[in-house]
Amino acid sequence: MFATWCLICGLLLIAVGLSDTWRQNLPFSTSAIYLAAGYLLGPEVSGLMRLQLAHDAVLLERLCEVAVLISLFAVGLRLRVSLSDRLWRAPLLLATLAMLLTIAAMWCFGLALGLASGSALLLAAVLAPTDPVLASDVQVEHAHDRDRLRFSLSAEGGLNDGAAFPFVMLALGLLGLHELGASGWRWWAVDVLWATTAGLAIGWCLGASFGRSVLYLRAEKEQAFGMESFFTLGLIALSYGLALTAHAYGFLSVFASGLAMQDVERRHRPAAARTASTKHVTPAVLDFTLDLERIAELAVMLIIGSLLTRAAFSSQAVAVALFLIFVARPLAVLLSTWRVAWTRRQRQFAAWFGIRGIGSMYYLSFAFAHGAYAAEAAFMADAVLVTIALSVLLHGSSATPLMRLYGRARSWRTRA
Q1: Nearest CA among 202, 339, 227 for reference residue 281
Q2: For the range 185-190, what are the long-range contacts, defined as Cβ-Cβ under 8 Å and sequence gap of 24 or more?
Q3: How many domains is the chain built from?
Q4: I want to staple 61 with a disulfide (CB 3.0 to 4.6 A). Which of 20, 50, 161, 365 is the partner?
Q5: Which of 406, 402, 391 is nearest to 129 (CA)?
Q6: Is there a domain that residue 40 lies in?
């Protein structure tokens, strides 16, 4: 079996590596290819992958955890914008108000389907975060990209993967699997206020400290920066580990560490060099992180594909996916950003590109690993997997043509 897996993984990695240019012209995303390959490897076709969410929840949680952490760090490194810049207003609204509205809409829809309140909230919270891994076609294209739409979608994916955690914990509390405290005081004090602020603070302090240290070694000691892989993995692990030790949200910590490292370099880099193409610390780290992100995407999407079954596509599971994609996400974005200075097309695209993927898979595995085995858990798993599959197919097939159309429209406005 090990030899078989070596053959499969080797062929997939080589095929992906050799077909990069060709894949960019396909009418669907690379994630869709991985998803289909996972289904073919799963129990309904070849049977080479026989993972089960109920029995392998901890393993799946860890694999998805690593993938999300790598992606969050990469997103933080991409966002080369000062925190005082007005560009941050839209993603903050998307990651807070829009996410709250999405959770509320999905919770009500779950109740309408007959789910218990705790299960409905858990389903809503698991599906709430957009995915920073699968949204590469709609993210910022380079460190100096100040496009409002791309920046907002990139930053939203980095923020709401951690911002959804309090609501997952609240749902687990309603299911009797987490301590909320009398009148919910512990949830407010620990799961919302402490875990969020401490996670952001820990990550920011670590990223800023390491960023300044590297700049000092290069500028004052004339030491070349190398071993980007060690530095990247070390900073991710340290940020995440310290946050978990402090009972804070590690996802927010890792995102903040990447953001802080980018911010330090942006502020300390000579003004004349800011628009130059000089090789610097952050680009070197980002290149390595993006390679890791692609490998993590392949691994997790194979797993998601192997978990999919024809029986999962029940009418109710499909209804959940369609309601989220076509109703909850668009309404949440339109209501939360109506005062943001976007064009109509930017607002429409932001409403459409609420990609769900590896982040939702992580939260689903997390819930199962922490005992969410209610009678409704099987339906919840089917609904999440179906939503991810449909999101990958619908958003993945539309991302490239729509963003090309958006880019041409921007060029015409600039020339005009």
Answers
A1: 227
A2: 190/247
A3: 1
A4: 365
A5: 391
A6: no
Query: Cα(361)–Cα(322) distance, rounded to whole angstroms?
Result: 18
**What does the alpha-carbon distance between residue 401 and residue 353 come to, in Å, rounded to a whole number?**
13
250, 237 contact by CB (below 8 A): no
**Side chain identity, residue 297:** E
Tokens at 404, concatenated? 């090309």
Residue 10 lies in a domain: no
What's the count of helices (H) and strands (E) in the chain, helices before strands? 19, 0
Residue type, 123: L
Which structural domain, as residue segments, surrounds residue 346?
53-415
Listed residue (227, 277, 296) closest to 74, CA to CA: 296
- Do the domain assignments include residue 254? yes
DSSP 132-193: SSS-GGGS-SSTT---HHHHHHHHHHHHHHHHTHHHHHHHHHHTTSS---GGGHHIIIIIII
| CATH value at residue 151 | 1.20.1530.20
**Tens of each residue's pLDDT in the chain, 416 residues:** 567 767 877 888 788 777 766 666 676 778 888 999 999 999 999 988 888 998 999 999 999 999 999 999 989 988 888 899 999 999 999 999 999 999 999 999 999 999 999 999 999 999 999 987 666 667 776 666 788 898 999 999 999 988 999 999 999 999 999 999 999 999 999 999 999 999 999 999 999 998 888 877 776 655 555 666 788 889 999 999 999 999 999 999 999 999 999 898 888 765 434 444 334 566 778 888 888 888 888 889 999 999 999 999 999 999 999 999 999 999 999 999 998 989 888 999 999 999 999 999 999 999 999 988 776 889 999 999 999 999 999 998 888 788 888 877 766 655 54
Q: Are 288 and 228 in contact (CB under 8 A)?
A: yes
Considering the domain boundaries, does residue 256 fall inside one?
Answer: yes
CA–CA distance, 35 with 56 (Å, rounded to integer): 19
Task: Say which residues have a Cβ less than 8 Å from residue 370's Cβ, sequence separation at least 6.
Answer: 172, 177, 178
Distances (CA, A) of 306 to 14, 40, 363: 21, 7, 18
> Cα separations (Å) of 125 from 150, 210, 309, 385?
24, 33, 23, 14
